[in-house]
Design brief:
- The chain is of the alpha/beta class and 373 residues long.
- The chain has 14 helices and twelve strands.
- Strand 7, helix 7 and strand 8 form a beta-alpha-beta unit.
- The protein is globular and about 65 Å long.
- The two termini are 31 Å apart.
């Protein structure tokens, strides 16, 4: 969901992509993104393109032909990073986990130490499974062997602590449409001083032009040398969305998302359903309750949309038909919306033949009441 104030910002008059006002908007965004990312990185900006453009920019600029590229693979977007690494000529080595499980510190550390790659990539917030991956041990092991770390924070930025500096993440990318509550079209990206030094020392020709971060840096910062025609209205929107987050306070925003996630889980479990991801490494922005045995998830989701105007995604890959993917983030993450969703979900499950053990709405309401005492 996109707040009305963000839509309003998009309606403001367009200026040129080399106009001083546009670059002031860009500068505002860069400062606000640093807060959201949890970083002091000077190279922090939003590039034109969706989250996948951010992913490809990270891979294209830091993964070289013939270099060893470790991917910690436990979901769909790890597979996408793998594919990009292969297309850019890397020797991709994967540590595999079932979809829905996180890597332990020991597993990641041992693998990275043994492989000694040039770059390590992982997904901090895996949209396909609902898993949150701890970052600090991965980054420590990578730095120990001289590797850079790429992190996909598409579904964590703006809703959960990303904490680039505290974790040691070198290259992070995200999108505008999830936790930042903005329409899709921009990809926030941030590079650590280590990554900048590596990029400046790189001597091999850059294989991408549009996503060449050196060229983009010259456009958005410094000389403002023309590179491409930026989508001005999208930058207006992102700035307004980030201002909204700053007004709420990032820590308050994280706490709100966590509280509403826990209420949703309480409701799901009261109904007799199970979460796909074990307690601990769960996203609080993207929830994955398992589909009850004998229930067609598509029919439940179609009922939710047709009868309650609620759009819930299904699983894909090995989780197709096995989980619901329920995004509760941004303006949607409220007490009222969680209670409404659980009530509608229960009605649709009953209509398809599932008999909940208890009321999910009442369990969530009880959880909220317990938080006030």
């Amino acid at each position: 969901m996109v707040p009305g104030r963000v839509y309003d910002a998009m309606s403001k008059p367009i200026v040129g992509h080399l106009d001083a006002f546009f670059f002031q908007v860009v500068e505002d965004i860069r400062g606000l993104l640093r807060t959201a990312f949890g970083t002091e990185n000077t190279f922090t900006m939003a590039i034109s393109g969706t989250g996948s453009a951010g992913m490809e920019a990270a891979v294209a600029n830091f993964v070289e032909p013939g270099s060893k590229f470790v991917v910690l693979a436990n979901g769909f977007f790890c597979d996408r990073i793998t594919e990009m690494g292969k297309r850019y000529g890397a020797e991709v080595v994967r540590l595999e986990k079932p979809w829905g499980e996180a890597f332990s510190d020991a597993e990641a550390t041992e693998f990275i130490r043994n492989e000694k790659p040039r770059v390590v990539a992982f997904v901090q917030a895996e949209t396909s499974t609902g898993v949150f991956q701890a970052s600090k041990a991965i980054c420590a092991a990578a730095h120990e062997v001289g590797a850079l770390v790429i992190a996909d924070v598409v579904t964590s930025l703006g809703g959960m602590p990303v904490q680039l500096d505290a974790n040691g993440i070198d290259i992070a990318y995200s999108c505008s449409q999830k936790g930042l509550s903005c329409p899709p079209g921009l990809a926030p990206i941030s590079l650590s001083p280590r990554a900048i030094e590596w990029l400046r020392a790189k001597t091999t020709p850059q294989r991408t032009w549009y996503l060449d971060l050196k060229l983009l840096d010259q456009y958005y910062d410094g000389a403002h040398r023309y590179h491409h025609t930026a989508p001005i209205s999208m930058f207006y929107a992102l700035r307004e969305a980030l201002v909204s987050i700053a007004e709420e306070g990032v820590e308050n925003r994280w706490a709100r998302h966590q509280r509403n996630h826990l209420a949703f889980v309480a409701g799901i479990e009261a109904m007799g359903l199970k979460m796909h991801v074990a307690e601990g490494p769960r996203l609080c922005t993207l929830n994955t309750p398992r589909v009850p045995e004998g229930i067609d998830d598509l029919k439940v989701r179609q009922r939710l949309l047709a009868e309650h105007d609620i759009d819930v995604a299904g699983g894909f890959g090995p989780l197709a038909g096995k989980v619901f993917r329920v995004g509760i983030m941004g303006p949607l993450s409220t007490v009222e919306n969680v209670l409404m969703l659980l009530d509608a979900f229960e009605k649709c499950l009953r209509a398809e033949g599932y008999q909940p053990a208890a009321s999910g709405r009442e369990a969530a309401a009880a959880f909220y009441a317990s938080q006030k005492s």
